[in-house]
Structure formats: structure tokens, C-alpha cells
């Protein structure tokens, strides 16, 4: 791990090489181990250690950016010189803003777990062995991954701002496969290897795989559905990219544009961005060094806020909320730690209180159809089941969904009392399971 003292020394040295009006340098990276298994045996063990350094230089209204993944000796000086060369060949940016002068941010003390970073490939193999043995006993084949590692983001600029944060992560995925093609799936995403209970996760995937046989075919149309946490999280991921950032809002591309302060979802939907929640751990500052704020994006169905970086904030005459992405940040700011607040019932209670619905484990091959209307499409996978009179009765064929997320989130009748975490595209989300009364399937899938 790149420690705080060494990081500060490297960043100071880099800044000293520049003659520009303002200079900012940040380092990201870490070390990660991955064990991959399929067909009931481990077929890959890899470790990757990779850090990168990015320099941003400003002179007048010109901005230059350069990066590299070696930052010792002449390489460190070279990344600054390359950024300055880029700057000299740039046109003036009329929207360029000065670097952030810095202020105190909330440090996260418990994000780095020593046991996780000291976990060994041999220990990973023993965890995989438990899973494989459980699957073999049920005549199933196991495939999946177990991964863990550490991460660091540190930033310094010529206006005296210095930030540093390190953390660990650990994840597990499992697909249990029946000889007839039925599959079941489970996963976990968190900050500590101790959070991963492979026996419990194997049990979930195995149960789904054993039930996922001889699926009945349902015709396309509108159905009541119960989305498990991962399926609900996929929709939240897309909703985030389609409109919670200030740039898309300002450019009229966001579903929030012109609707701030109005009802856009159901009363039971509240969505926040909060880096300090353990379910969605994040940076306490952004990639401009601005302290990250907790933001309520949607409150009881009403559009409340979008998130800002320094450039979009200047345009709207407000302050950055601390949501800048790494430069050049062409997408503008974005929430990275989303939570859809839970309800009161357990997932099991929601199922028990349902006369008829389709229970969905997760989606894949998702794509945007209409960004302004938040229409997305994708396929179900690894466990679709019919719920009848409060019981899961049989498997259902996979289907293609085609829905407006805003419409789906306007017809949520129940939310589970627990939330589950997921990470993708650099974004962490935590979602409850949700029962949606109107959900459209446009076709069948193999």
C-alpha cells in the first residue's frame, strides 16, 4: 500500500516540477487478488498491483492533463512536462475554474481491514473448496470468483490542498449450474473478507439452481414482479447515469431537467448519496479535493437535487457538492455511493403476502433505450420464479424487460427492510428488494 507519508512526498515533488499558475496531481491504485473457478475447480489465480498518477496544470484559461503508471525518477517529472505540453496546444477553456484551496474533510477510520489485505490465495482456495463440495453433493457445477485487495486515492495541488484515503474491498460471486441448464446465483460485495459467508451464499445459489428446472413459459406483457436486491440495484445504477449529475441536468439530457421539486416516483422512494454508509463505502472527497457531501436526490418521490463539481457549480452560481470524477471528467459530476432507503418487511414477508408475481434474481445485458424517459431493456438471468398464494411454486422462462425506470419506481408497493450492496463502473449502490405492480416484459429469451 502507498502510505500517506510517501504519497505526500511524491505529490510534492511532482508539483515542484511545474512552472504553471496552478498544478494538481493525484494518485490512484492498489493491489488485488482474484481466484476464479469453473467446472468445480480453480483455473485462475492472479494478483495485480497497479498505480497511476495524473497531473492537471492550468495557465490562464488553458488546461493540460497527462497520466502515467510509473512515478519515480524522471518518469515523475515527465508526466508534468507532458501535461504542460498538452496545455500549450489547447484552446482557452472559457469555463475553466481555479483549483480548490482545500478545507477539512471527514476521514473514514474503519475502511481499511488488515485481515482482508493479508488473506492468501491458499485461504481463497479453501473457501472455494467449501463451495465446490456443497455443489457436488447436489450434482451441481460451481463457477465464480473470490477477490480482495486494497485501494488508495490521494491528491495535492499548488493551493495547499492535500487529501488521502485508503480502503479494502472483498467480493464473491457464485453460479450453481444444473446438468439440465438450470442456474442459481448469489454474490456479496463489501470491505472485509470476514463479511463473506461462502456456506450461506452457496446455499442461496444451490436452492435457486435446484428450483430452476422445467420453466413454464409466460407470454410477454405487464406483470407484478418482486425484484431481488441485485435486480433493483441494476435499475438504480442506470437511473444514476441518466440524470443525477449536474452536467446532464444543465444540458437538458437529465430526466430531472425541468422537474425539480415535482413528483417523479412513488411516495416510498427516497434515494440518497452518502459516502459514509458502510453499505456503499466511498471517498470522503472527490477528484478535485472537495469534501464530499451527503445529498438527498429524491425524497418521497420528489426530485430534490443533482450533484455538482466545481465547473458545473460555477455555472449555476452554487458550490460543488464534492462529486467530481477524475479528469477530464467529460461526463461531469456523478454520485458514487447511492442508497435507496428500505421499507419495513423482509423479502420473505413480501413474498408471503403476494397472491401472484414473478420473482427475479437479477438482470444482464441491460441497455438504454430512451435516456430522457429512463427506458431501459435487458434480460432476466439465474432464477426467475412464479410466486402463487405466497409461495415460490415453479421456474419461469427468462424474458426481456422493457421499462421506464421512473414508471417502475412509481409503482413500487413494497420495499424490503434490508439492503444489499453492489459495485459496478466505479459506482456503489445499496438497494432493498422491491415489489413493483406494473413491470413490462416485451419478449421471451432463451
**How would you sum up the global shape?**
globular
Distance between the termini: 45 Å
Number of strand segments = 17
Based on helices, strands and strand pairing, what is the structural class? alpha+beta
The strand line-up of the biggest sheet is 3-2-1-4-5-6
Radius of gyration: 24 Å
Order of helices and strands: HEEEHHHEEEHEHHEEEHEHEEEEHEE
Task: Report on the biggest sheet.
Answer: 6 strands, antiparallel
In DSSP terms (H or I, runs of 4 or more residues), the helix count works out at 10
List low-confidence stretches.
none
* Mean pLDDT over the full residue set: 95
How much of the sequence is in beta strands? 35-45%
| Helical residue percent band | 10-25%
Annotate the secondary structure layout.
Layout: H1 4-16, E1 22-38, E2 41-59, E3 62-68, H2 74-88, H3 114-117, H4 121-137, E4 140-157, E5 162-178, E6 183-190, H5 198-211, E7 221-227, H6 229-241, H7 246-250, E8 271-273, E9 295-299, E10 302-303, H8 310-316, E11 337-340, H9 347-352, E12 356-370, E13 375-388, E14 391-395, E15 399-404, H10 405-409, E16 412-424, E17 427-444
Parallel strand pairs: 7-12, 11-17
Antiparallel strand pairs: 1-2, 1-4, 2-3, 4-5, 5-6, 7-17, 8-9, 8-11, 9-10, 12-13, 13-14, 13-15, 15-17, 16-17
Helix pairs in contact: 1-2, 4-5
Core attributes:
446 residues; alpha+beta; five-stranded mixed barrel; 17 strands; 22% helix; 40% strand; globular
Please give a quick description of this structure.
With 446 residues, the chain is of the alpha+beta class. 22% of the residues lie in helices and 40% in strands.
Description:
Helix content is 22%, strand content 40%. It has 446 residues and is of the alpha+beta class. The strands form two sheets. It has a six-stranded antiparallel β-sheet. Strands 7-12-13-15-17 form a five-stranded mixed beta barrel. Strand 9 and strand 10 form a beta hairpin. Helix 1 packs across helix 2 and helix 4 runs parallel beside helix 5.
Amino acid at each position: 500500500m502507498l502510505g500517506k507519508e510517501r504519497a505526500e512526498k511524491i505529490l510534492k515533488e511532482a508539483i515542484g516540477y511545474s512552472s504553471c499558475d496552478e498544478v494538481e496531481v493525484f494518485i490512484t491504485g492498489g493491489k488485488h487478488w482474484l481466484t476464479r473457478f469453473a467446472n468445480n475447480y480453480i483455473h485462475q489465480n492472479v494478483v495485480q498491483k497497479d498505480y497511476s498518477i495524473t497531473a492537471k496544470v492550468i495557465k490562464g484559461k488553458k488546461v493540460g492533463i497527462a497520466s502515467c503508471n510509473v512515478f519515480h525518477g524522471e518518469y515523475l517529472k515527465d508526466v508534468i512536462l507532458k501535461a504542460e505540453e498538452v496545455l500549450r496546444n489547447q484552446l482557452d477553456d472559457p469555463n475553466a475554474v481555479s483549483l480548490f484551496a482545500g478545507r477539512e474533510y471527514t476521514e473514514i477510520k474503519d475502511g481499511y481491514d488488515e485481515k482482508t489485505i493479508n488473506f492468501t490465495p491458499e485461504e481463497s482456495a479453501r473457501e472455494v473448496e467449501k463451495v465446490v463440495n456443497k455443489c457436488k453433493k447436489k450434482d451441481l457445477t460451481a463457477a465464480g470468483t473470490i477477490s480482495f485487495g486494497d485501494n488508495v486515492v490521494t491528491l495535492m495541488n499548488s493551493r495547499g490542498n492535500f487529501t488521502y484515503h485508503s480502503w479494502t474491498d472483498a467480493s464473491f460471486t457464485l453460479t450453481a449450474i444444473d446438468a439440465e441448464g438450470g442456474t442459481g446465483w448469489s454474490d456479496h460485495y463489501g470491505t472485509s473478507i470476514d463479511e463473506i459467508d461462502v456456506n450461506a451464499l452457496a446455499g442461496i445459489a444451490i436452492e435457486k439452481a435446484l428450483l430452476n428446472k422445467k420453466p413454464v413459459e409466460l407470454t410477454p406483457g405487464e406483470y407484478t414482479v418482486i425484484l431481488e436486491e441485485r435486480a433493483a440495484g441494476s435499475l438504480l445504477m442506470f437511473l444514476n447515469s441518466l440524470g443525477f449529475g449536474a452536467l446532464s441536468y444543465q444540458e437538458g439530457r437529465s430526466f430531472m431537467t425541468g422537474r425539480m421539486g415535482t413528483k417523479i416516483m412513488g411516495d416510498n422512494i427516497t434515494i440518497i448519496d452518502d459516502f459514509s454508509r458502510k453499505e456503499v463505502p466511498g471517498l470522503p472527497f472527490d477528484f478535485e479535493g472537495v469534501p464530499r457531501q451527503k445529498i438527498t436526490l429524491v425524497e418521497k418521490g420528489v426530485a430534490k437535487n443533482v450533484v455538482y463539481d466545481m465547473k458545473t457549480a460555477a455555472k449555476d452560481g452554487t458550490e460543488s457538492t464534492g462529486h467530481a470524477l477524475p479528469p477530464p471528467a467529460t461526463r461531469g459530476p456523478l454520485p458514487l455511493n447511492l442508497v435507496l432507503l428500505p421499507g419495513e418487511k423482509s423479502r420473505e414477508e413480501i413474498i408471503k403476502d403476494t397472491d401472484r408475481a414473478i420473482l427475479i434474481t437479477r438482470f444482464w445485458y441491460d441497455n438504454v433505450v430512451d435516456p430522457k424517459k429512463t427506458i431501459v431493456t435487458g434480460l432476466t438471468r439465474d432464477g426467475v420464479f412464479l410466486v402463487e398464494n405466497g409461495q415460490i411454486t415453479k421456474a419461469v422462462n427468462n424474458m426481456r424487460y422493457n421499462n421506464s425506470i421512473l414508471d417502475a419506481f412509481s409503482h413500487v408497493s413494497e420495499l424490503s427492510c434490508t439492503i444489499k450492496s453492489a459495485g459496478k463502473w466505479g459506482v456503489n449502490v445499496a438497494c432493498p428488494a422491491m415489489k413493483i405492480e406494473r413491470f413490462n416484459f416485451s419478449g421471451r429469451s432463451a
